[in-house]
Amino acid sequence: MTLDRKKRQLKILELIATRPFRTQEELADALAQEGWEVTQSSVSRDISRLGLVKLEGIYARAAIARLQELTDPNERRIAESVLTVDTAGDALIVLHTPPGEAQRAGNALDLLAWPEVVGTIAGDDTIFIAVADAATRDLVARRLRALQGDAAP
Predict the structure, then answer these.
(1) Is residue 16 part of a domain?
(2) Is 104 helix (H, G, I), strand (E, B) or coil?
(3) Structural domain tally of the chain?
(4) Would you say residue 11 lies in a domain?
(5) What is the pLDDT, as a whole number, of residue 1?
(6) Within 10 A of 12 (CB to CB), how many other CB atoms are there?
(7) Contact (Cβ atoms closer than 8 angstroms) between residue 59 and residue 21
(8) Are residues 94 and 128 in the same domain?
C-alpha cells in the first residue's frame, strides 16, 4: 500500500469518527475539501479495504458495529478510539486515534494492565506502546486489531 493511500484511509477513518456520512459521494466531497483528489471508485475501494459497515445508514468502522460484544469498558474505549495499529521496530506499536482521543484510549490500555505492555505514551492522536520483543509486539498488535474487528489499514 502506498503512503498516500494509507494517509487517505486514515483521513477517512478520522472523518467518519467525527461526523456522519451516508454516501460515498458525501465522503468523497469531504475528502476533496481536505485537499485529497479522489473519485467515487477510489473511495469505494477504500471503504472496502477498511472494512467499513453501515449502521443505520451511516458509515462506521467494524469495531463500532461490534461494541455490544465487548463487555470490558476499557476494551470498548479502545475499540471506539483506535483507528490504526502499526508496528515499528521490534518493541514498539503505534496507534492512531482521532484528534484528542489518544489520552482516553491510552488510559484504557493502561487500565487493562496487559502484562506484555511495558509502558505507553499518549499524545493528542498517537499512542506509543512499548513491549519487550518482536514476538510480544506481534501478540499485542493482534489483540488490538481484534478489538478493531481486524479492519485497520
Answers:
(1) yes
(2) helix
(3) 2
(4) yes
(5) 60
(6) 28
(7) yes
(8) yes
Residue 27 corresponds to which cell in the numbers above?
465522503
Distance from C-alpha of 108 to C-alpha of 112, rounded to nearest angstrom: 6
Q: What pTM, to 2 d.p., does this model score? A: 0.73
For residue 10, being part of any structural domain is answered with yes
Looking at residue 119, the DSSP 8-state letter turns out to be E
- Residue 141 placed within a domain: yes
CATH number of domain containing 94: 3.30.1360.40
Domain extent, residue 12, equals 3-60
Residue 150 binned pLDDT confidence (cut-offs 50, 70, 90) = low
Is the per-residue pLDDT at 153 higher than 70?
no
On the 0-12 / 13-18 / 19+ scale of CB atoms within 10 A, 61 is buried
Q: Are residues 86 and 53 in the same domain?
A: no
pLDDT digits (tens, 9 = 90+) for 93-122: 999 998 889 999 999 999 999 999 999 999
pLDDT by residue (tens digit) across 19-48? 999 999 999 999 999 999 998 899 999 998
- Give, as one character, the DSSP assignment of residue 95: E
Is 98 found in the same domain as 52? Answer: no
Rounded CA separation 93/140 (Å): 8
Cα 21 from Cα 27, distance rounded (Å): 6
Q: Are 153 and 6 in contact (CB under 8 A)?
A: yes
pLDDT grade, residue 65 (50/70/90)?
A: low
